[in-house]
Amino acid sequence: FSDTGTKPPESGIFGFMINISALLGVITMYIRYLLVEKQNESSHFIRSSCNMFSLCIGLMGCTGMGIVATFQELSVPTVHDIGALVAFGSGVVYITLQSIISYKSCPQWNTYFVCHMRMAISVISCIAFIPMIVFASQISMTKIDWTPGEKDYTFHFMSAICEWTVAFGFIFFFLTFIRDFQ
């Protein structure tokens, strides 16, 4: 995932797009927070502090995305990796909390189908997050232009697959908010 943004000029475009995505994530999460607060006024399905906690976790994930975009993998690998861990870790916790909130609001504010979809995406993302960390921790060098057969290639390849799985999980999860936001 991060290999996309390791060399100029792609790195500038990648960083810019990651920052735009983080901003859109913040906006989406805040709208979702406000929506749940409004629904909760009449239904009282969760404590307001739970909704606020979920928002804060989500904002941490967006901050992690900003760190990933700002500190490139080859230039400052430790800071980049910490940002990625915060982004993906917080993101997985956020979508899991939002899935739980969705179930709590059923059937008045959500359908069970949407809740099941959200939870399925959350579970897949959680499952992919763990091997992503395990495989990434086994990589002994930071480089670009990997070739099959070289040392740590398999770890890099498997970590990248899991990273993309989690990233697309976030995208698909946010798409489930479309109906709620109408």
Automatic annotation (TrEMBL):
Residues 2-182 form the CWH43-like N-terminal domain. The keyword Transmembrane applies. The keyword Membrane applies. It comes from the Eukaryota. GO terms for cellular component: endomembrane system; lysosome. It is a multi-pass membrane protein. InterPro entries: CWH43_N (IPR019402), DRAM/TMEM150_Autophagy_Mod (IPR050911). The chain crosses the membrane at residues 12-31, 52-71, 83-103, 115-135, 155-178. One of its GO terms (biological process) is regulation of autophagy. Belongs to the DRAM/TMEM150 family. PANTHER family: DNA DAMAGE-REGULATED AUTOPHAGY MODULATOR PROTEIN 1, FASTING-INDUCIBLE INTEGRAL MEMBRANE PROTEIN TM6P1-RELATED. This is DNA damage-regulated autophagy modulator protein 1. It comes from Eurypyga helias (Sunbittern). The lineage of its organism: Eukaryota, Metazoa, Chordata, Craniata, Vertebrata.
